[in-house]
Amino acid sequence: MTFGFLRWLHRRGVSRGRLRDTWLHRVLGDRLFSKDLWAFRRDAVARGWFIGAVVAATPLLGVQLLLGLPLALLGRANLLVVIALIFTTNPVTAGLFYPFAFLVGCRVMGRPVNDFHWDNTPVWHAGGPLFLGCAVIGLVVGLTGYILLRLLWRERTSPAKGSGEI
Predict the structure, then answer these.
(1) In this structure, is residue 37 part of a structural domain?
(2) 126: exposed, middle or buried (C-beta count within 10 Å: 0-12, 13-18, 19+)?
(3) Residue range(s) defining the domain that contains residue 62
(4) 81 in Cβ contact with 45 (< 8 Å)
(5) What is the largest CA-CA distance in the chain?
(6) Would 100 be classed as within a structural domain?
(7) Is 13 inside any structural domain?
(8) Is there a domain that residue 121 lies in?
(9) Which pLDDT score is estimated for 16?
C-alpha cells in the first residue's frame, strides 16, 4: 500500500526531483529530502502522529500548518501524517471540536460551564478554558497514538544477505 500511495504522490508532482531548486528547497536545504519526513517508518509515523495531534488541537485554525511543518522538520516526523492530522480540524469540524474542548477546559479548571454568559462575557475570559481543553485533548490523543503506534507496529526485518537463513 505504501508504494501505491507514493506512486500516486509522484504522479501528482510530489517527488524529490520536482522539489529540488524550489523555494522550499532553498529555505529548508537538503533536510527536506530526509527519509524520515517521507517514508512510512514506525518511529517517524509515531512522531508525526504526536506532533500532528497536538498541533491539530490548537484553536489557531489558520496557523496550524505554519506551526506543524517546522515542528515536523525539527522532530524528524512524517510530514504526510502531520498534514493529514492537521486537516482533521477544519471549519466544518471546528464547530464540534472547539465547544467540546471548551467543556474539557472548564472541567479541568474546575469552573462550571454555566458560569459563562456568552452575551456579555469577553472573549479572553473564554480563551483560557478553550486553550487548556485543546492542549489536554491534543496531548491525550497525541500520546495515546504515539504509544499505540510504537507498541502495535512491528518493523519488518529481513535477514542479512549471506546469513544462511531461508
Answers:
(1) yes
(2) middle
(3) 21-152
(4) yes
(5) 76
(6) yes
(7) no
(8) yes
(9) 64
Domain count, the chain: 1
* Distance, CA of 138 to CA of 117 (rounded, Å): 26
Q: CB within 8 A of 145, min separation 6: which ones?
A: 46, 49, 50, 53
The tens digit of pLDDT for each residue in 90-125 reads 888 888 998 899 999 999 999 887 766 666 666 666
C-alpha cell at 107: 472541567
Task: For the chain, give the DSSP string.
Answer: -HHHHHHHHHHTT-SHHHHTTSHHHHHHGGGGG-HHHHS--HHHHHHHHHHHHHHHTSS-GGGHHHHHHHHHHHHT--HHHHHHHHTTSSHHHHHHHHHHHHHHHHHHHT--GGG--TTTS-HHHHHHHHHHHHHHHHHHHHHHHHHHHHHH-PPP-PPPTTS---
